[in-house]
Write a sequence for this structure.
């Protein structure tokens, strides 16, 4: 497993995402992921599965301190001190005293950024939150958030068809982790001839090539989700080969500004 070191903290480059994994499918998926060697687990208040992630953590023989656990505060929980109270509820559901990283899930223009970030900063001082981050923040908003409190991560949609060059560069300058969700473009990479050709050289699938391309970038982690055990095994099996510089650039050139995830109403992405 490759780790990226950010602000002196080693983070597993491949994580297991739990978006749209409900109930027992989530519990079984997280348990299996931990058995396979995943040590970075991603959930959110808005996924409504934190308690099932917690059950999987409790059943696993993997020590809690070996797991980089991430959750996210819903935008509806930003006002006042609700970010802190809802995070405490998340900790209860997860069955843990702390979360390694708590993110603001989406921008909420109705609430000043200071409110949720300062709320999380208080939890950070108490030790209930190790690191604070954001998700789906464009560069200017990321800069504003970083002026309020020290950030660790920005989690965004990132795959071969959507360049995030500006955010990757900004993350490098600020020593932030950039975590890629939808890293295989909801399966679209499977039919890509460029990824197929590169994969054939290494005996790897287009999915594995796309994931390797992401985690081979400095400070970029990926959190693929799969309800299939076979896919979970495939997604973590990307550390026994390395893409050449030419291959990395060939994948960068696949960018077509294809965004697959719509944000809340009124959300406008910077270009």
């Amino acid at each position: 497993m490759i780790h990226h070191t950010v602000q002196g903290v080693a983070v597993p480059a491949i994580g297991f995402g739990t978006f749209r994994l409900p109930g027992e499918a989530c519990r079984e998926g997280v348990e299996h992921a931990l058995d396979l060697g995943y040590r970075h687990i991603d959930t959110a208040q808005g996924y409504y599965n934190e308690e099932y992630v917690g059950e999987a953590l409790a059943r696993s023989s993997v020590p809690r301190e070996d797991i980089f656990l991430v959750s996210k505060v819903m935008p509806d929980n930003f006002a006042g001190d609700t970010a802190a109270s809802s995070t405490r509820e998340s900790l209860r559901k997860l069955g843990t005293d702390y979360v390694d990283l708590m993110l603001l899930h989406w921008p909420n223009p109705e609430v000043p950024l200071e409110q949720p970030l300062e709320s999380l900063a208080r939890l950070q001082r108490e030790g209930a939150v190790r690191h604070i981050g954001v998700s789906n923040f464009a560069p200017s908003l990321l800069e504003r958030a970083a002026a309020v409190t020290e950030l660790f991560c920005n989690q965004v949609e990132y795959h071969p068809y959507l360049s995030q060059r500006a955010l990757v560069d900004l993350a490098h300058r600020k020593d932030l982790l950039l975590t890629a969700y939808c890293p295989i473009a909801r399966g679209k990479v499977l039919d890509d001839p460029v990824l197929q050709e590169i994969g054939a050289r290494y005996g790897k699938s287009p999915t594995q090539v796309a994931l390797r391309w992401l985690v081979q970038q400095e400070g970029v982690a990926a959190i693929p989700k799969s309800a299939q055990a076979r896919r979970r095994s495939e997604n973590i099996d990307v550390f026994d080969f390395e893409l050449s510089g030419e291959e990395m650039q060939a994948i960068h050139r696949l960018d077509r500004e294809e965004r697959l995830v719509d944000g809340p109403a009124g959300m406008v992405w910077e270009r």
Remarks:
- Residues 23-36 form the longest helix (14 residues).
- The mean pLDDT is 96.
- Residues 3-184+215-240 form a domain with the TIM Barrel fold (CATH 3.20.20.100).
